[in-house]
Amino acid sequence: MAEQAIHLEADADARRGFLLALGAYLLWGLLPFYMKAVAHLPLAEVIAHRIVWSVPIAAAVLVWAGRTADFKAALRSRRTISMAVLTAVLISINWGIYVWAIAVDRTIETALGYYINPLVSVVVGALLLGERLDRLQIAAVALAAIAVAVLTIEAGNLPWVSLALAFSFAAYAFFRKTLPIGPSQGFLLEVLLLSVPALGYIIFLIATGQDHFVSASSNDTALLIGCGPVTAVPLLLFGFGARLLRLSTIGIMQYIAPTIVFLIAVLIFGEPFDSIQAIAFALIWAALAVYSWSMFRGREIRPAAPAAQ
Fold first, then answer.
1. Is 63 exposed, middle or buried (0-12, 13-18, 19+ CB in 10 A)?
2. What predicted TM-score, i.e. pTM, was given to this entire model?
Protein backbone atom coordinates (compact mmCIF):
# COMPACT_ATOMS: atom_id res chain seq x y z
CA MET A 1 0.00 0.00 0.00
CA ALA A 2 2.82 2.40 0.87
CA GLU A 3 4.54 1.74 -2.47
CA GLN A 4 1.26 2.27 -4.32
CA ALA A 5 0.72 5.56 -2.49
CA ILE A 6 4.22 6.70 -3.51
CA HIS A 7 3.50 5.87 -7.16
CA LEU A 8 0.17 7.71 -7.04
CA GLU A 9 1.86 10.76 -5.52
CA ALA A 10 4.58 10.65 -8.19
CA ASP A 11 1.95 10.43 -10.94
CA ALA A 12 0.07 13.37 -9.45
CA ASP A 13 3.29 15.41 -9.28
CA ALA A 14 4.07 14.54 -12.89
CA ARG A 15 0.60 15.61 -14.05
CA ARG A 16 0.86 18.86 -12.09
CA GLY A 17 4.34 19.50 -13.48
CA PHE A 18 3.15 18.78 -17.02
CA LEU A 19 0.26 21.25 -16.73
CA LEU A 20 2.49 23.95 -15.24
CA ALA A 21 5.17 23.52 -17.92
CA LEU A 22 2.52 23.30 -20.66
CA GLY A 23 1.05 26.58 -19.45
CA ALA A 24 4.50 28.17 -19.63
CA TYR A 25 5.20 26.92 -23.16
CA LEU A 26 1.76 27.96 -24.41
CA LEU A 27 2.22 31.46 -23.00
CA TRP A 28 5.68 31.69 -24.58
CA GLY A 29 4.23 30.48 -27.88
CA LEU A 30 1.52 33.15 -27.82
CA LEU A 31 3.91 35.92 -26.71
CA PRO A 32 4.37 37.29 -30.28
CA PHE A 33 0.79 38.58 -30.18
CA TYR A 34 1.66 40.74 -27.17
CA MET A 35 4.95 41.86 -28.66
CA LYS A 36 3.09 42.93 -31.81
CA ALA A 37 0.71 44.94 -29.64
CA VAL A 38 3.64 46.92 -28.17
CA ALA A 39 5.60 47.12 -31.45
CA HIS A 40 4.64 50.80 -31.86
CA LEU A 41 6.40 51.64 -28.60
CA PRO A 42 10.18 52.27 -28.29
CA LEU A 43 12.13 49.06 -27.72
CA ALA A 44 14.12 50.34 -24.73
CA GLU A 45 10.96 51.54 -22.98
CA VAL A 46 9.26 48.16 -23.49
CA ILE A 47 12.27 46.30 -22.07
CA ALA A 48 12.48 48.68 -19.11
CA HIS A 49 8.83 48.13 -18.19
CA ARG A 50 9.18 44.40 -18.82
CA ILE A 51 11.86 44.38 -16.12
CA VAL A 52 10.27 46.74 -13.59
CA TRP A 53 6.81 45.15 -13.60
CA SER A 54 8.30 41.67 -13.23
CA VAL A 55 9.76 42.55 -9.83
CA PRO A 56 6.54 42.64 -7.75
CA ILE A 57 5.29 39.40 -9.32
CA ALA A 58 8.56 37.55 -8.69
CA ALA A 59 8.73 38.94 -5.14
CA ALA A 60 5.15 37.91 -4.37
CA VAL A 61 5.79 34.35 -5.58
CA LEU A 62 8.96 34.13 -3.50
CA VAL A 63 7.11 35.25 -0.36
CA TRP A 64 4.28 32.81 -1.10
CA ALA A 65 6.79 29.95 -1.54
CA GLY A 66 8.52 30.86 1.71
CA ARG A 67 11.97 31.14 0.12
CA THR A 68 12.90 34.65 1.26
CA ALA A 69 15.72 33.40 3.51
CA ASP A 70 17.58 31.97 0.49
CA PHE A 71 17.15 35.23 -1.35
CA LYS A 72 18.47 37.31 1.58
CA ALA A 73 21.51 35.04 1.79
CA ALA A 74 22.15 35.55 -1.94
CA LEU A 75 22.10 39.32 -1.47
CA ARG A 76 24.99 38.99 0.99
CA SER A 77 27.19 37.07 -1.47
CA ARG A 78 29.39 39.16 -3.76
CA ARG A 79 30.00 36.19 -6.05
CA THR A 80 26.28 35.51 -6.41
CA ILE A 81 25.57 39.17 -7.15
CA SER A 82 28.38 39.29 -9.74
CA MET A 83 27.12 36.21 -11.54
CA ALA A 84 23.54 37.49 -11.37
CA VAL A 85 24.65 40.72 -13.05
CA LEU A 86 26.12 38.67 -15.90
CA THR A 87 23.03 36.48 -16.33
CA ALA A 88 20.78 39.55 -16.09
CA VAL A 89 22.68 41.24 -18.92
CA LEU A 90 22.49 38.10 -21.07
CA ILE A 91 18.74 37.63 -20.60
CA SER A 92 18.07 41.32 -21.25
CA ILE A 93 20.00 41.05 -24.54
CA ASN A 94 17.88 38.02 -25.43
CA TRP A 95 14.67 39.89 -24.57
CA GLY A 96 15.74 42.94 -26.57
CA ILE A 97 16.52 40.97 -29.73
CA TYR A 98 13.25 39.04 -29.42
CA VAL A 99 11.05 42.11 -28.97
CA TRP A 100 12.81 43.93 -31.84
CA ALA A 101 12.54 40.94 -34.19
CA ILE A 102 8.79 40.61 -33.63
CA ALA A 103 8.31 44.34 -34.22
CA VAL A 104 10.13 44.28 -37.57
CA ASP A 105 8.36 41.15 -38.90
CA ARG A 106 11.17 38.67 -38.33
CA THR A 107 9.16 36.31 -36.15
CA ILE A 108 10.13 33.24 -38.20
CA GLU A 109 13.75 33.92 -37.31
CA THR A 110 12.89 33.96 -33.60
CA ALA A 111 11.23 30.56 -33.97
CA LEU A 112 14.34 29.22 -35.68
CA GLY A 113 16.50 30.64 -32.88
CA TYR A 114 14.60 28.77 -30.18
CA TYR A 115 14.52 25.60 -32.29
CA ILE A 116 18.31 25.51 -32.54
CA ASN A 117 18.87 26.64 -28.93
CA PRO A 118 18.92 23.06 -27.51
CA LEU A 119 21.52 22.07 -30.07
CA VAL A 120 23.62 25.15 -29.28
CA SER A 121 23.43 24.20 -25.61
CA VAL A 122 24.75 20.73 -26.47
CA VAL A 123 27.73 22.32 -28.25
CA VAL A 124 28.35 24.71 -25.33
CA GLY A 125 28.30 21.76 -22.93
CA ALA A 126 30.82 19.91 -25.06
CA LEU A 127 33.17 22.86 -25.49
CA LEU A 128 33.03 24.39 -22.01
CA LEU A 129 32.08 21.49 -19.75
CA GLY A 130 33.81 18.65 -21.56
CA GLU A 131 30.55 16.76 -22.05
CA ARG A 132 30.85 13.95 -24.58
CA LEU A 133 28.50 13.89 -27.54
CA ASP A 134 27.23 10.60 -28.89
CA ARG A 135 26.92 9.95 -32.63
CA LEU A 136 23.27 10.96 -32.78
CA GLN A 137 23.97 14.28 -31.07
CA ILE A 138 26.86 14.97 -33.45
CA ALA A 139 24.57 14.18 -36.38
CA ALA A 140 21.90 16.53 -34.98
CA VAL A 141 24.39 19.38 -34.60
CA ALA A 142 25.69 18.73 -38.15
CA LEU A 143 22.15 18.91 -39.58
CA ALA A 144 21.55 22.19 -37.76
CA ALA A 145 24.84 23.58 -39.09
CA ILE A 146 23.80 22.63 -42.63
CA ALA A 147 20.47 24.41 -42.12
CA VAL A 148 22.27 27.58 -40.99
CA ALA A 149 24.60 27.30 -44.01
CA VAL A 150 21.59 26.97 -46.35
CA LEU A 151 20.01 30.11 -44.92
CA THR A 152 23.34 31.96 -45.05
CA ILE A 153 23.90 31.13 -48.72
CA GLU A 154 20.30 32.02 -49.60
CA ALA A 155 20.32 35.38 -47.77
CA GLY A 156 23.97 36.26 -48.36
CA ASN A 157 24.60 36.65 -44.62
CA LEU A 158 24.27 34.71 -41.40
CA PRO A 159 20.78 34.42 -39.85
CA TRP A 160 22.08 36.57 -37.02
CA VAL A 161 18.75 37.05 -35.26
CA SER A 162 18.29 33.29 -34.85
CA LEU A 163 21.91 32.74 -33.85
CA ALA A 164 21.93 35.67 -31.41
CA LEU A 165 18.79 34.40 -29.69
CA ALA A 166 20.10 30.83 -29.52
CA PHE A 167 23.58 31.71 -28.28
CA SER A 168 22.49 34.41 -25.82
CA PHE A 169 19.99 32.05 -24.20
CA ALA A 170 22.49 29.16 -24.20
CA ALA A 171 25.04 31.43 -22.52
CA TYR A 172 22.39 32.56 -20.04
CA ALA A 173 21.51 28.95 -19.19
CA PHE A 174 25.20 28.04 -18.84
CA PHE A 175 26.04 30.85 -16.41
CA ARG A 176 22.68 30.61 -14.65
CA LYS A 177 23.78 27.18 -13.40
CA THR A 178 26.50 28.89 -11.39
CA LEU A 179 23.96 30.73 -9.22
CA PRO A 180 23.56 28.70 -6.01
CA ILE A 181 19.86 29.58 -5.70
CA GLY A 182 16.62 28.28 -7.17
CA PRO A 183 14.95 29.57 -10.34
CA SER A 184 12.42 31.87 -8.67
CA GLN A 185 15.06 33.41 -6.38
CA GLY A 186 17.43 33.80 -9.32
CA PHE A 187 14.79 35.43 -11.49
CA LEU A 188 13.91 37.94 -8.77
CA LEU A 189 17.59 38.74 -8.22
CA GLU A 190 18.11 39.30 -11.95
CA VAL A 191 15.13 41.59 -12.48
CA LEU A 192 15.88 43.42 -9.24
CA LEU A 193 19.39 44.21 -10.45
CA LEU A 194 18.10 45.23 -13.87
CA SER A 195 15.34 47.33 -12.34
CA VAL A 196 17.84 49.94 -11.09
CA PRO A 197 18.83 51.22 -14.57
CA ALA A 198 15.37 50.36 -15.97
CA LEU A 199 13.54 52.44 -13.37
CA GLY A 200 16.03 55.27 -13.81
CA TYR A 201 15.38 55.24 -17.56
CA ILE A 202 11.60 55.26 -17.06
CA ILE A 203 11.86 58.21 -14.65
CA PHE A 204 14.05 60.06 -17.18
CA LEU A 205 11.49 59.50 -19.94
CA ILE A 206 8.64 60.72 -17.73
CA ALA A 207 10.62 63.79 -16.58
CA THR A 208 11.41 64.77 -20.17
CA GLY A 209 7.93 64.01 -21.52
CA GLN A 210 9.20 61.27 -23.83
CA ASP A 211 7.42 58.41 -22.09
CA HIS A 212 4.45 56.34 -23.22
CA PHE A 213 3.45 55.46 -19.66
CA VAL A 214 2.14 58.68 -18.10
CA SER A 215 2.03 60.98 -21.11
CA ALA A 216 0.38 58.56 -23.54
CA SER A 217 -2.99 56.81 -23.76
CA SER A 218 -4.33 54.52 -21.06
CA ASN A 219 -4.04 51.64 -23.55
CA ASP A 220 -0.28 52.13 -23.83
CA THR A 221 -0.01 52.39 -20.05
CA ALA A 222 -1.84 49.08 -19.63
CA LEU A 223 0.30 47.42 -22.29
CA LEU A 224 3.51 48.53 -20.57
CA ILE A 225 2.32 47.30 -17.17
CA GLY A 226 1.28 44.02 -18.79
CA CYS A 227 4.86 43.46 -19.96
CA GLY A 228 5.64 42.32 -16.41
CA PRO A 229 3.09 39.49 -16.15
CA VAL A 230 3.74 38.18 -19.68
CA THR A 231 7.44 37.97 -18.77
CA ALA A 232 7.29 36.68 -15.21
CA VAL A 233 4.32 34.30 -15.21
CA PRO A 234 5.59 31.76 -17.81
CA LEU A 235 9.08 31.77 -16.31
CA LEU A 236 7.71 31.04 -12.86
CA LEU A 237 5.28 28.40 -14.16
CA PHE A 238 8.18 26.68 -15.90
CA GLY A 239 10.34 26.88 -12.78
CA PHE A 240 7.72 25.13 -10.67
CA GLY A 241 6.77 22.63 -13.38
CA ALA A 242 10.24 21.55 -14.51
CA ARG A 243 11.25 20.22 -11.10
CA LEU A 244 8.35 17.74 -11.21
CA LEU A 245 9.05 16.38 -14.71
CA ARG A 246 11.47 13.96 -16.32
CA LEU A 247 14.27 15.55 -18.30
CA SER A 248 13.02 13.70 -21.37
CA THR A 249 9.59 15.29 -21.02
CA ILE A 250 11.08 18.76 -20.77
CA GLY A 251 13.29 17.95 -23.75
CA ILE A 252 10.27 17.27 -25.95
CA MET A 253 8.02 20.01 -24.55
CA GLN A 254 10.59 22.74 -25.28
CA TYR A 255 9.63 22.56 -28.97
CA ILE A 256 6.02 23.57 -28.26
CA ALA A 257 6.71 27.31 -28.02
CA PRO A 258 8.81 27.76 -31.19
CA THR A 259 6.31 25.64 -33.13
CA ILE A 260 3.45 27.92 -32.08
CA VAL A 261 5.59 30.98 -32.88
CA PHE A 262 6.41 29.55 -36.31
CA LEU A 263 2.73 28.89 -37.10
CA ILE A 264 1.73 32.36 -35.93
CA ALA A 265 4.44 33.96 -38.07
CA VAL A 266 3.43 32.13 -41.25
CA LEU A 267 -0.33 31.71 -40.89
CA ILE A 268 -1.34 34.87 -38.98
CA PHE A 269 1.41 37.47 -39.41
CA GLY A 270 1.81 36.43 -43.05
CA GLU A 271 5.60 36.53 -43.05
CA PRO A 272 7.17 35.12 -46.24
CA PHE A 273 8.29 31.49 -46.08
CA ASP A 274 9.99 30.37 -49.27
CA SER A 275 11.26 26.99 -50.42
CA ILE A 276 14.81 27.61 -49.15
CA GLN A 277 13.51 28.39 -45.69
CA ALA A 278 11.34 25.27 -45.87
CA ILE A 279 14.45 23.18 -46.60
CA ALA A 280 16.32 24.78 -43.69
CA PHE A 281 13.45 24.20 -41.28
CA ALA A 282 13.10 20.61 -42.49
CA LEU A 283 16.78 20.09 -41.64
CA ILE A 284 16.25 21.67 -38.21
CA TRP A 285 13.22 19.49 -37.50
CA ALA A 286 15.21 16.43 -38.57
CA ALA A 287 18.05 17.51 -36.28
CA LEU A 288 15.64 17.90 -33.37
CA ALA A 289 14.13 14.47 -34.05
CA VAL A 290 17.60 12.90 -34.01
CA TYR A 291 18.55 14.83 -30.88
CA SER A 292 15.34 13.80 -29.11
CA TRP A 293 15.91 10.17 -30.02
CA SER A 294 19.42 10.37 -28.58
CA MET A 295 17.85 11.36 -25.25
CA PHE A 296 15.78 8.19 -25.13
CA ARG A 297 18.02 5.58 -26.73
CA GLY A 298 19.66 3.22 -24.29
CA ARG A 299 19.40 5.43 -21.23
CA GLU A 300 17.05 5.67 -18.31
CA ILE A 301 16.00 9.24 -17.64
CA ARG A 302 15.26 9.87 -13.97
CA PRO A 303 12.97 12.62 -12.69
CA ALA A 304 14.70 15.97 -12.49
CA ALA A 305 16.02 16.77 -9.05
CA PRO A 306 13.77 19.16 -7.17
CA ALA A 307 15.02 22.71 -7.44
CA ALA A 308 14.64 25.19 -4.63
CA GLN A 309 11.80 27.60 -5.26
1. exposed
2. 0.85
